[in-house]
Amino acid sequence: MQASGAGAGAGAGATEQAQKSKPAKAAKKKPKRKAKAKTTKKRKEVATAGDNGQRMVRRVRTVNGKRVVTYHPARTAAAGAVAVAAAATAGDKAGLHKTDDPLSLRSSVAYVVDQNSAEVLFEKNANVALPIASITKLMTGMVVMEAKQDLDEVLRVTDADVDRLKYSSSRLSVGSRMTRRELLHITLMSSENRAASALGRNYPGGIEAFVGAMNVKARALGMMDTHYVDSSGLSSRNVSSARDLVKLVMAAHEDPLLREFSTTPKSTVQASGRTMHYANTNYLVSLPDWNIGLQKTGFINEAGRCLVMQAMIHGRNVVMVFLDSKGKMSRTADAGRIRRWIESLPDRMDVDAVRAPTITASAPALPH
Question: Is 190 a catalytic residue?
Answer without folding.
Answer: no
